[in-house]
Amino acid sequence: MSQATGPLNLRALRVFEAVAQHGSFSRAAEVLAMSQPAVSLQIRQLETELGVTLFNGPQRSRLSDAGRELLQHARIIAAQVRAAEEALAGYGSEPGRGQRGHRGLLHLGVVSTAHYFAPRLMHAFNQLHPEVRLKLTVAKRGEVLAMLGEHQLDIAISGYPPSESDLEATSFARHPHCIVAHPANPLALRKRLRWADLRDEHFIFREPGSATRQFLEQLLQSQAIQVRAGLELAGNETIKQAVMCGMGISFLSAHTFQVELQAGMMVVLDVIDMPKTIDWCFVQRRDTVLSGVPAAFRDFVIAEGAHWSACRTS
Prior knowledge:
The protein is α/β, with parallel strands linked by helices and about 325 residues long.
């Protein structure tokens, strides 16, 4: 055991994590502002002292089983070090000086639909804590939750509380969804539409696996109705373009079409019992006690998130 304590210093783990993340010794060297030979030497020394092979393949770009095991621990350690640094950054260097404003880096991950309001939320938080540096990653729901679970993100914002037992979610706002159409669609002039009135419309679906698609399928099942699947497209922006071309109607998050609604390029159909809503959730790992910047952002989101994520539905 004593032999293993030497190589597992923070510098060695940071170099290893960078190579594992980027899949390249040269790219890791660029990110770390090191020479490639220095990175290679650090990895060789780590492997020699631990007595394992961390990377396989012709270019040494693929993690071994031992490498994957070490990467999990390296990310946990790095996350705890960042949390400690951020917590201590709030204290002055002089004895008795007490706390000062929050400082440090906050890496937030959000699902694609949340990126329509996440910058406003982050900007408002940054106005209160100008010394905080912010990083935003936008990805599919499954990718965001996986990154959070693997300690690649500090916190996340997602719809639907996650089912993963290692993640904890707190609702902070409602997330409305509507049926949208081209302004010239005859249904745009009708009031109190029933779901049955939509049966013959060409419906544009999100791709399978998206939260929006999942929500729509649940609604259709609850209404015991089938609609005509005219198109299946990936991403909100592509679907909006198809709706604005008159190719069909679609079920979308209200966050996605605020600009188009205001410009009169798209309308929300007046369907009974619409819009339908789910929750926006602040998501964190259960094994991490938030402090410093992440804790401050969590408190801000819970208190102010509903305001900064508000949107029109008509």
